[in-house]
Amino acid sequence: MTAWSALSRATHARDERRGISRATLRRVMTYARPHRGRIAAFVTVGVVEAVLAVATPLLAGRVVDTIVGGGSASTVVGLAVLIAGLALAGTALGLLGRWLSSTLGEGLILDLRTAVFDHVQRMPVAFFTRTRTGALVSRLDNDVLGAQRAFSDTLSGIVSNTVTLLLALAAMLTLSWQVTVLALLLLPVFLLPARRIGRQLAGLQRVAAESNAAMTGQTTERFSAPGATLVKLYGRPDAESARFAARARAVRDVGVRTAMVQWAFISALTLVSALALALVYGLGGTYALAGSLDPGAVVALALLLTRLYAPLTALASARVDVASAVVSFERVFEVLDLVPLVRERPDAREVPDGPVSVELDGVTFAYPSADRVSLASLEDVARLDGRGGVDVLHDVSFAVQPGQVVALVGSSGAGKSTIASLVPRLYDADAGAVRLGGVDVRDLTAASIRRTVGVVTQDGHLFHESLRDNLLLAAPEATDDDLWDALARARLADLVRALPDGLDTVVGERGYRFSGGERQRLTIARLLLARPRVVLLDEATAHLDATSEAAVQEALDEALEGRTAIVIAHRLSTVRAADCILVLEGGRVVERGRHEDLLALGGRYAELYRTQFGRPVAVA
Questions:
Q1: Do residues 405 and 577 lie in contact, with contact meaning Cβ atoms separated by under 8 Å?
Q2: DSSP assignment letter at 140
Q3: Is 0.70 surpassed by the pTM of this model?
Q4: 393: pLDDT strictly greater than 90
């Protein structure tokens, strides 16, 4: 499908024909309310500027009348000085207005970006697994900037141009109502196309936003370390370049179309303004020659006409600007209107003090469908998949007593990592309950869950910040001594001391300046700093060689001492000492017991053991 057909479809879309939603405008005003003092000052400055703009042509007419009437030079000089004073005042007010405009606009950007960022942080993990990062970043960048223009530019223009228009019209009617009425005969040319052009440009604005989001999404994914590595490994840079060029051309095409529509609209209105000016000179000059109109009045009318049609042009364009800004607001509000599936109850309480147990009681769970957690525009699809998720856990029940270590083993996709996501409440169970310290996690505060449950995931993710910052994420109040102690227990202290910047070394995006084993040990050091009462290890030693695994296992044994722990592992050698081993298959617990008992049972666990070690089961 060509870019032009997409533009045409957007231009004639039904949702654009409905115009600007009043509900959207009311919601926009809620963001303006905290800035009402600055908005009032902004509007006042615009009104005063409008008064000065109309006063200058009237004074210019007085100058002409004084010259033609043989008045004194002092009068002419006095009027000139007054005109100069008005110009200086107008410049000063323009500077003040610009400052108010910029502070108002930047304040709105801050409010919107903060609101979107905070809201997105509350979204469930399923939202991030489906959403294109670039499309989401575009909402925080391009769309917020588009919404900001409604206040920093459009608002002042509407107020000052309306006042200028009314004052200029009143002055012109006072000077010569006949000339004024004839000059206004072309007014419908201004008003009739404004509504249609506004709808058309609003459609183009939406297409531009979506095209920019698609282009940003590709660059965000391909310029990340994993994305760039994938492209290089599979050797398709030409295909990636062609795909990016197609998206960049779509952005170019919509930009050209928008520019041409705006140019044609403004040029037509400028032409009408010029024709009206010629009418004033011709008709007003005729009246002046006949003696029914002063020469100064003709000059004042001509100058006032520019103060009349320029605001009309701006006000006609204001609808275009407002429509474009509303599109940006709507795209921002789309994100803010997504309801997080995991929400904290108003009466939520803290996790009980002391040792903490973990219990799953009849838990059934299916990952949510796309239409519950995402937006089509954020996934770059025409329509979200509304099909319900398939259950990945079926009536799972088990309990981990305080201080116990329970291991989860089983085939890939059996539901082990899903359980690890339910305990810290990254998702909520569809049926049954997950409890910490005997309390349903849905009744606990998110902050207390984070303090209680520490997780080491498979990928060992790190932010593109310093080692210190990545470690302090777990314990903001930790001292350097605490950091070095955690690094030593994770068998990393010598490595970090050898780095040129030590703790201030930047780890790179996702920690790619370190090996997989080193990244994993850094995340373990972060866990040791957090000192949680419940520990979840999701393949925590998967990326370590035998030597590193043994070293880190010693640190983990120390960290797990006296704590409740759930350990997920494919390497059965790492779970032999667990107090209880749960074997999951197809989302159900099919076996449970200690290592020796499960081997003696000769069931699924024994089969997994035999597959890994390639020897018959031998029970001591």
A1: yes
A2: I
A3: no
A4: yes
